[in-house]
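**Discrete fold encoding**
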Amino acid sequence: MSSSPMAGPAPSHRWLRLLGYGLGGLVLWLLSLIVVQALLSRRIARSQMVQLGSEVAFSLRLGELALERYPMDAVAELGGLELAESPPPSSRRGRAEALALRAELCRQLGYCRDVVAAGGGLWVEMVSPLEPIWLFVAPPTPRRWPPDTLSLVLSLVATGLGLTTLVLSLEVQRPLQLLEISLQQLGTGRNPRPVPERGTRAVRQITARFNALLRRLDEARRERETMLAGIGHDLNRPITRLRLRLHLAEDQPMRPEEAAKAQGDLDALERITQQFMSFARGESHEAPVQVSLDALLAELAGQSAVTPLKLDLVSLDAWVRPVSLGRAIGNLLDNAASHGRAPFRLGLRPWGSDGFEITVADGGDGIPEHLWEQALQPFRRLDEARGGDGHCGLGLAIAQRAALAHNGELIHAHPEGGGFVLGLRGRSLSDLVTLSRDPDRSASDPATRMKGVESS
């Protein structure tokens, strides 16, 4: 059974997701910048206040020494200081800066001075011989925008870490959590739903393979249920006829024609059982070997009951699973003998660079185009009247499985001249053969290969 190819998210969804991450990163960067700028602003304001305290302490010392000899106006002119006998009325604005400057002056001078916030600045009291003098100090201006280089670097680092965490959470952790939940459900015997294929490329590939596994398990479950239901239905008819004939044989000996019919019922039971076993077992366990396809097909034609059968074989060697391939070709020949009519033809020719095409043609009407998909389904018979006579609707299903096992397909065609053609296309399985292992001599021996095919 083939699984659908892994499909990633639609391009529009991918672009929308990238746009969402871009917008999220931009918002995260702005928030990080605001937080970092606010945190650094406090340190910068503290540093500025320490520097301002040093400058004001130096100005106070020089100013107070000058005021002992010179008047206030002369000191202001010579020192470039803004002095006043009294400050303007105090205001609430700048009170925090005033308290911070006063604390800094107390630390640096060893004694405290009054600091008043007024007139858009800070006024510091100076010691004067005659009357109090106040020194005007311009408070430091905090830098709001543009932010400094350190704030930009730290905000970008924080944004990168946050965005990486977000992407890992949404694109890796969340999809893997959903996958883990489905695996737990599968381990407890439940049938989980397919997991949405989202996240990074690697996660999508893992999810796609898991969904393909779920599809194969679901198909296997349905096939098993159908097989269990069909085996009783298909075996019931020949078993009932055999039971009736054996019951009648208790009163009188079985006539030759009745014995032949009983033998036919036994043959039908054997064919049905073999087909069920072949379909249930599968052929994936069979190792590929190199065979001469034309010799294999010629041997199968000799074993077939299809007569007359014309061979049109090209000499061709390939690595195949001979038991699986032989069983599939036998089913195609049996299908032609049961549903078609003469002339019959078995053909072989190359297909592509490393493939082969095996065709079984007859002169019948074949399978209508609208019923082809139904004919490939297991346990589906187009002619329900043939059920129980050794035909359980598995012939084409087994042939299709063999074609898929050889990386090929099962084809059908209605030639213009009339008739019907069923074909099996496949490719050589040489890539599955370990090159370091020497091929087994028995695998390349035609007699051994034909014996293996006969045992199928």
User: Anything to note?
Assistant: The two ends are 21 Å apart (CA to CA). Residues 33 and 155 are 5 Å apart (CA to CA). The longest strand covers residues 344-351. Confidence is low (pLDDT under 50) at residues 1-7, 384-390, 434-456.
